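Sharing a chain and its predicted structure for anyone who wants a worked example. Both blocks are below, sequence first, C-alpha cells second.
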Amino acid sequence: MPVSEESRVHIIGAGVAGLAAAVHLSQQGHRISLYEAAPRAGGRCRSYHDPQLDCVIDNGNHLMMSGNHAVMSYLESIDAADRLIGPPHADYPFIDVATNERWSLRPSAGRMPWWIFNAHRRVPHTTPWDYLSALRILKSDAHETVADCVGTEGPLYRRFWEPLTVAALNTDPRQASAQLMQPVLTETFLRGSHACRPLIARRSLADTLIEPAVQVLTAAGADIRYGTRIKALAYTNDLVCSLEMDGENVAVAPTDVVILATPPWIAETLIPGLNVPPPGEPIVNVHYRLASAIGGDEVVRIVGVIGGTAHWVFARGDLASVTISAAADLVDTSADDIASACWPDVAAALNLEGDKAPSRVVKERRATFAQSPDALALRSKTATNCANLLLAGDWTATGVPATIEGAVRSGFQAATLASKCHGVVTSLSPTYSARKQIEAA
C-alpha cells in the first residue's frame, strides 16, 4: 500500500521501542513525529555524566548477546553495529565468592551442545545428564515456572539456572515463567557459541543505541519533540483524533497512525480499560571509578558472581559496574551500604586490591514487568481496538523477556503493522480493530 504524502505516524515515547519503530518507518519513507516527555531520548536506557565519578555512566548495565537478531538489525540500520564490544568467543567467567572457586562456561560451536561433555567448559560438579533439565523448559506450558522444570537443588541450579533466570527475566526462578526462558535458550545457547557471545556498549548505552538513532531520524526530517508529555488521547469513532498536552493539542488525521511506546504504567492512563502486566522486580546497579583501566579502554570483562551481593560485574576501561537483578530485598538499603557490600565481590571478580573505589548507586524501581506465568496473559498485543492506535514496549506480547531485544522487537512489530494500515484506516469501518484492517489491506 503506498504511503500517503499527507499522512504521518505519531510515536509517543523515545525509548528503545519508540526509536526502533521510528527508524524502521522513517527508512521506509514515512513521515514521523516523535514525542518524548524527558529532555532527551533513551527512556530507561539512558546515559549521563555523573559529577561524583566525573565520567559517563549508564542508568543500568544491559548485556546483549550476539544471537539477539532484532538488536543487531537495529544497530545495522543506524550504522552502530561496531559500538558493541565483548570477548572474541562465547565465554562466561564465574566466581563463587563463598568458596573462591572460578570457572568459565564456554558453549561450543554448532547446535549440538558438545560443551556439556567437557568438564572444563561446563559448570563444576555437574554431569552432562544434568543439562537434560533444559528439555523440560523447552516443553513447559504456560503455567510452569523455571523452578517447576529444573528444580531448586544442586550445583547446576545454583550456578547456572538461577543466575541465568534472574539475569534474563529479572525474576526468581520460583516465580519466573518457564515459557519466557524458552527463547533465551533457543535463540542463544542452543544455537552454539556464535549466537551467545556476550556484548555490552563500547562507550555507553546512549552512544550505542540512542544517539545514532536520533541522528538517523533527524537526517530523515523527523519531527522530534522533547519535554513533551502527552496527557491524554482524544477519540472520535474509535479513532485517535488528537494528542493532548499542556497548552497544545496535536491533531491526528484520519489517515495517521499513533504508536504508543511508553512504559505500561503510562500506557494504562492513556488507553481506557487497558490491562497491563503488574510491576516486577527492581534492579540495582553500582558503578565504581577505578584508579586505572583494566586492560585498556577497548577491553571488556564480564564476570558472574555466585554467593555474593553482586550478580554480575562489568569492567570497561576504568569503570567497573555491578548489576543486582530481582533486588526487592536490597532496593531500600542505603547507597553507601550497597556499594560497600558489593565492593568485595568486585575486588574478587577482578582481582583488585585496596580500598573501595568511588561509587555511584543507581536504582531502577520499575525495571521490568513481573515476568511470571500469571503476568504473561496480561501482555498487550501490538494492535488495539482503536483502528489507528498501536502499542510498543518490552512489556507487550513479543514472545521474549523484557530486555533490549524485546523492546526492539516490539518497535519493529508496531512499525510493520503501521506500514500496513498507514493511510487506509478511513477506508474501512471505524469499529474494526487495527488487526482486521491490516488483514483487509
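Comments welcome. The chain has twelve helices and 20 strands.
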